[in-house]
Amino acid sequence: MESFSAFSIGPRNCVGKSLAYLETSIVLAKTLWYFDFGAAAGSLGAVGEGRDRGRPGEFCTWDVFNSTHDGPYLGFFRPRDSVLLYEDLRSHSMGT
């Protein structure tokens, strides 16, 4: 059976693994902070809800070898008005 391990495992694993996970977490957190998003309209927006587990409105994943899911489907994804996204990006690119 073949498998894929991006950072390798054991004593010779990647020394940058922790840094890569940290950077990924920061990108995800900033995306959630700077953007508003919402579920798609109609039945497509309910795909992946935990209705069978008694948790409507809650998105669920299923445990397999790693993880799998169905949904969520987004109806909109746009920058927040209340957050100064462009000013923050400009200040970071100028090194201030």
TrEMBL record:
Keywords: Heme, Iron, Metal-binding, Monooxygenase, Oxidoreductase. Gene3D superfamilies: Cytochrome P450 (1.10.630.10). PROSITE patterns: CYTOCHROME_P450. SUPFAM superfamilies: Cytochrome P450. It holds the Pfam family p450. Signal peptide: none annotated. Belongs to the cytochrome P450 family. This is Uncharacterized protein.
